[in-house]
């Protein structure tokens, strides 16, 4: 008796494979993408929010924090290998995942689908925000590593444009959401939170963390906006008096 013909092998479209063991190099790339979002990028984000909160105290406190960070040993290597290369990988691979993904929120308006969509779009917004923020503050105008006490004035100079104020606000919200929901995904994918109950309660923790980061970011922006505008003059002595 003739046997039934074997069905042709399914043709799989090349792209980002699901996060499962035995799926080739994509599994490793996704795991690395998930890990870098927490360590070191997430830790850097927390440090950055805390450091920027010094702006609430005024120009002297903020300048002192910038000076301290730039005085750390091996600061160039720390930034290159601990911040910029991980962000570059996480951002570019995240764009690839976003490009290959299919949310279908109109056809399937499930909570998870909306969360997936929000995670991808907030990642794009946060990446654009970090690119603009880094370029303007590090590679244009006053060189802050050489003039750290002018950092407050440089940010204030950006805030003279209301569009930049709005862009900063959107960027802070996007970065906070993306990190905190990414933390929730990380705990679920890496087996830290097992079961629906654990994931639900950790979701509340991540939501509170997101709201806390947004509040810290808002306080930082208020510091830049509420204090008198500092002169942005590299030739002037960098002695800033703390005002009440």
Key traits:
about 240 residues; mainly alpha; 3 helical TM bundles of succinate and fumarate reductases; disordered N terminus
Explain what you see.
There is one protein chain. The N and C termini lie far apart (95 Å). The chain is built from 8 helices and no strands. Mean pLDDT is 86; it is low at 1-22 and 239-244. The protein is mainly alpha-helical and 244 residues long. The chain has one domain (27-102, 114-226): 3 helical TM bundles of succinate and fumarate reductases, CATH 1.20.1300.10. It has helices at residues 25-38, 41-52, 59-70, 75-100, 111-139, 151-158, 162-189, 196-226. The longest helix is centred in the C-terminal third of the chain and has 31 residues, at 196-226. Helix 1 packs across helix 7, helix 2 runs parallel beside helix 8 and helix 5 crosses helix 7.
Query: How many beta-strand segments?
Result: 0
Unreliable runs, pLDDT <50, ≥5 residues? Answer: 1-22, 239-244
SSE-based structural type:
mainly alpha
Helix proportion? 55-70%
Tally of individual domains: 1
Mean pLDDT: 86
Cα-to-Cα separation, first versus last residue: 95 Å
* Overall geometry: globular
Radius of gyration: 22 Å
Supply the CATH architecture.
Up-down Bundle
Major sheet details? none
Protein name: Succinate dehydrogenase, cytochrome b558 subunit
Enzyme class: oxidoreductase
Organism: Candidatus Sulfotelmatobacter kueseliae
InterPro entries: Cytochrome_b-558, SQR/QFR_C/D
